[in-house]
Write a structure and sequence with these properties.
This protein has 224 residues and is α/β, with parallel strands linked by helices. The chain has 6 helices and 8 strands. It has a 6-stranded mixed β-sheet with strand order 1-6-5-4-2-3. Strands 7-8 form a two-stranded antiparallel sheet. Strand 7 and strand 8 form a beta hairpin. The longest helix has 22 residues.
């Protein structure tokens, strides 16, 4: 479970392309990447990297969720990090995810699965009331993936591997229209609330940029 959805929704980050050689191929039939992706059948995002199929261990579920503590995801983390000793974990969401759009109206049977996402969506929508729905949804996809990455990095098994052997955890989002992934890199700090609030309003604040002016764009949040 995410510790703070308000902080997650106000993350400041850069959106960068994913070079094919971002993770160089080892040329060996041994997994070096744990790839966490969505179950949507049309997603082909693992082709973003120029590595052998055997170099990627793929774990999929509804919405690329890892933070709800289900046994399957916990087992995938333990197996890949402790036994396979993968060098990278990629959490990859995608734009236009129907599962994200329906999270707030999900049947009772899967409400618990989407609890964090539903809370994050409510905060995201409240922060960006003037954006079109498609823009808010793109921003939600980006901050959600980064929140999952932050949660993963805080888990003891992953944190130990990061400290001991340099395990890297990446946040990707797949764009179906471009058949390509982007990577999300946090640049530090938090974005001011555009309409005022405890984290900085129109006149700036502890987390605001110059004069507190923030550009909320589809596909990212950047200071002007």
């Amino acid at each position: 479970m995410f510790p703070d959805v308000h902080r997650a929704a106000q993350r400041r980050y850069s959106i960068l392309p994913v070079p094919k050689d971002l993770i160089p191929s080892t040329g060996e039939s041994k997994a070096q990447i744990l790839w966490v992706g969505c179950s949507d059948s049309w997603i082909t995002e693992t082709a973003a990297l120029d590595v052998l199929p055997q170099e990627t261990f793929v774990h999929r579920n509804l919405g690329s969720v890892m933070s709800n503590g289900d046994l399957s995801s916990a087992s995938a983390i333990a197996y890949c990090v402790d036994l396979l000793e993968v060098k990278h974990i990629v959490v990859c969401g995608h734009y236009d995810c129907v599962l994200f759009k329906e999270a707030s109206e999900a049947p009772t049977a899967i409400h618990g699965w989407y609890e964090d996402l539903s809370r994050l969506r409510a905060v995201n929508d409240a922060l960006l009331p003037d954006l079109e729905t498609i823009q808010r949804d793109r921003h939600l996809a980006e901050v959600y993936v980064q929140a999952e990455v932050e949660w993963l990095r805080s888990q003891p098994t992953v944190a130990k591997a990061i400290a001991d052997r340099g395990l890297k955890v990446h946040a990707f989002v797949f764009n179906k229209e471009e058949e390509a992934c982007v990577r999300l890199v946090e640049v530090g700090g938090w974005v001011a609330e555009p309409n005022g609030g405890p984290n900085g309003g129109p006149n700036g604040g502890p987390n605001g940029g110059p004069n507190g002016v923030v550009a909320w764009e589809a596909g990212g949040v950047r200071e002007r």
